[in-house]
Write a structure and sequence with these properties.
alpha+beta, five-stranded antiparallel sheet, three-stranded antiparallel sheet, single chain
Length: 502
């Protein structure tokens, strides 16, 4: 709100209406000047490109180039290779397995046996290299490196095949992004992806060959259409309407490439700093003729060169080999932030971390990991499970009527295992967590774990053995329990009292 100054007060005595109009004009000018700084074109925004484009427009224009940049970094940059491996290993670990459940135990046992045999062999891989756990790792690693991956269902009923489902893994570069089409029913193909008139995803046009280099000219690059029932697409969707994924190296690709050049320059600087440099002026003999001597055009560490009498030696001062550790650490921290890892995960350097900071860093990382496992990977895993079930019905018979499954993800490493397990134990005791959830957090299936415990206890009893891991005979403190022993009863009461106090 504009305020009256001294001149306005004087004019208000003689022309109050004119002063009011002047204040109104000032208010309008001030209102137009109020705006978000980042939306303007002031001095601080010089050189800042702000394109008003959709997620679909941006990703379709850039995803291929960014995929190439990510692949190049993974091939030649150790930090990029580390990023890819750390993410894929944390998302998948030794494999993401379904915990199958059904009240029809016989049908469930048959289904589970066939599934585990299929998933545990390379028969599930169309190329025959990986079992299902290995394919899961490949899917996660490909998403990190190039932005996305297609999984295609192939029905292979070749004689001798135990189960005819094959999974073909295709990079996003197989998408025929040049294909455009508009159909009479209103559906359309945009950059190789088909949508209905209402915008629903219908399928993908995937190339037959990803690279025709060296192939006969008679072979033309073509693409075939696959519905969403035949292909599933895994990628990190950051914006509404985004059709394809972007390499996770996008925010840090330029930094990593420049860091490579920076390291090469530092290595050259260190090499030069280790050398002794000199310029020698040739000496002349008594009759004015220069003495013969081999010219020196290079220097090396520890070099000793004999010169003729009278030669003048001018020593060169090599550049100082400065220590750029702090700069390197800061650069790597920026890279770690850009790919949602901790500095310690990126570098393997735990020299500057304590328990509290390590735990806080892992807690933040685990929230990112939850997204990757439960939001990005789980829908594709569910589709693969449904593909298996559909083919199972055709080949083996009906499924258990109430078949359900829960995905068991790999266990997450604890910073302080003893303390953190005690917290989980107390959650189970208080009802905040179920025993099955605890077992699943350890990367195991609940029912098989209990069944194995029962078998182990039966084996202990048959051999007449008692181990302090058996809660039937030993307390948590390791003291042996005896129902007829008053001391044992006191131990139990004491432990119950401690638990109530905690």
């Amino acid at each position: 709100m504009a305020k009256l100054n001294i001149l306005d007060r004087v004019q208000a005595v003689f022309n109050p209406i004119g002063v009011v109009k002047k204040l109104q004009a000032r208010n309008i000018i001030e209102a137009n000047q109020r705006a978000y700084e980042a939306s303007g074109k002031g001095r601080r925004n010089d050189g800042w490109k702000k394109t008003n484009s959709t997620g679909a427009e941006e990703t379709k224009a850039a995803y291929m180039a960014l995929a190439a940049a990510g692949s190049e970094l993974v091939r030649n940059n150790p930090l990029a290779t580390r990023i890819k491996n750390v993410w894929a290993s944390n998302i998948v670990g030794n494999g993401i397995t379904p915990q199958l459940q059904s009240s029809t135990k016989l049908k469930l046992k048959k289904y589970e046996s066939i599934y585990k045999q299929w998933a545990g062999s390379t028969a599930c891989d169309y190329e025959g290299h990986y079992n299902l756990a290995g394919l899961q790792w490949l899917w996660a690693a490909t998403v990190v490196e190039t932005g996305g991956v297609f999984i295609r269902k192939i029905y292979d009923n070749t004689a001798g095949v135990s189960f005819p489902l094959r999974l073909q893994t295709l990079e996003q570069s197989y998408l025929d992004s040049a294909y455009q089409e508009l159909y009479k029913d209103g559906s359309q193909v945009i950059s190789g992806i088909k949508y209905s008139k209402e915008g629903k995803l219908l399928g993908y046009y995937l190339k037959n060959y990803i690279n025709t280099t060296g192939m006969p000219l008679s072979i033309k690059q073509e693409s075939n259409f696959f519905t969403t029932d035949e292909v599933t697409h895994i990628f990190k969707k950051d914006r509404a309407g985004q059709p394809v994924g972007i390499s996770w190296f996008a925010p840090v690709a330029t930094t990593l490439a420049n860091f490579d050049r920076y390291q090469d320059a530092k290595l050259m600087q260190q090499s030069i700093a280790a050398c002794f440099g000199a310029i020698v002026t040739k000496a002349e003999n008594q009759i004015g003729v220069q003495t013969e001597h081999n010219d020196i055009d290079a220097i090396e560490p520890g070099m000793i060169e004999y010169m003729p009498d009278g030669a003048e030696v001018h020593q060169l001062t090599p550049p100082k080999a400065d220590n750029a550790t702090e700069f390197d650490v800061g650069l790597k921290r920026n890279v770690a932030v850009g790919v949602n890892l901790t500095y310690e995960q990126l570098t393997g350097d735990y020299s500057k971390v304590n328990f509290a900071s390590g735990r806080m860093g892992k807690t933040d990382f685990f929230t990112q990991l939850d997204y990757c496992q439960n939001i990005m990977m789980k829908p594709a895993l569910n589709k693969v499970q449904n593909w298996f079930g559909d083919i199972y019905v055709l080949e083996k018979g009906p499924l258990p009527s109430d078949l359900t499954w829960q995905w068991v993800f790999p266990p997450r490493q604890a910073v302080n295992p003893r303390e953190e397990f005690e917290i989980l134990f107390q959650k189970v005791r208080s009802g905040a967590m179920t025993p099955s959830e605890l077992v699943q957090s350890m990367g195991k299936e609940f029912e098989p774990t209990l069944q194995q415990w029962k078998k182990d206890q039966e084996l202990f009893d048959s051999l007449g053995l008692k181990f302090d891991c058996d809660p039937r005979y030993f307390a948590r403190t390791g003291n042996q329990l005896d129902e007829n022993d008053a001391a044992t009863q006191n131990i139990e009461k004491s432990e119950l009292k401690k638990e109530k106090q905690n």
